[in-house]
Write a structure and sequence with these properties.
Number of domains: 1
Distance between the termini: 40 Å
Structural class: mainly alpha
CATH superfamily: Tetracycline Repressor, domain 2
Radius of gyration: 17 Å
CATH topology: Tetracycline Repressor, domain 2
Helix content: over 70%
Strand content: under 5%
Number of strands: 0
CATH architecture: Orthogonal Bundle
Largest sheet: none
Number of helices: 9
Length: 175
């Protein structure tokens, strides 16, 4: 990627964290980031190309942050990931993930294609490496269910207690 592409991708990423990505329109985006729709289309090939670049950026950021959390608290990785994800400062990233994940499921042939599947694969890999004695699928289902509930209700105390209880229960199962 060129320096200009990186710069505009960074600005566009900041924009979609604030405004969402599901109904992204190039004109307001370009105006907000100091560009034009033509430049964005030239640099990213199409609106779908820009969306794919934004989704890739989102996945990279999520994985980098999850790996950082994992390195800081290796004894209870699932709860450390939960605490990071439930932090209100990360709500825009979670909302973006949910928009992209949902769109990937409902529109599997567009720019969103494969996002949900790759997201699952990414997280399963991280969880399997971090907790080799636990079932990564069970942990992922618990975390994602909790995140959906959190985004809907913002009841972090109730959901944190439920996630902790479920993860402890899942840890007793076999892989």
């Amino acid at each position: 990627m060129s320096a200009r592409q990186e710069e505009l991708l960074d600005r566009a990423y900041t924009y979609v964290l604030e405004h969402g990505i599901a109904d992204l329109s190039l004109r307001p985006l370009a105006a907000a980031i100091g560009s034009s729709p033509r430049v964005l289309l030239f640099l990213f090939g199409s609106k779908d190309g820009l969306i794919r670049a934004l989704l890739a950026r989102s996945r990279q950021e999520q994985l980098a942050l999850v790996k950082h959390v994992r390195s800081q608290q290796p004894d209870d990785v699932a709860m450390a990931i939960w605490d990071w994800a439930a932090d209100p400062r990360h709500r825009p990233l979670l909302t973006l993930w949910l928009e992209a994940y949902t769109r990937s499921v409902t529109d599997p042939t567009g720019a969103w294609s494969g996002f949900a599947t790759q997201s699952i694969t990414d997280w399963l890999t991280v969880l399997a490496e971090a907790q080799p004695d636990a079932d990564p699928t069970a942990t992922l289902v618990i975390l994602r269910g909790g995140l959906l509930d959190l985004l809907a209700t913002d009841d972090s105390d109730r959901i944190r207690a439920a996630v902790r209880s479920a993860i402890r229960g899942a840890g007793r199962g076999n892989r």
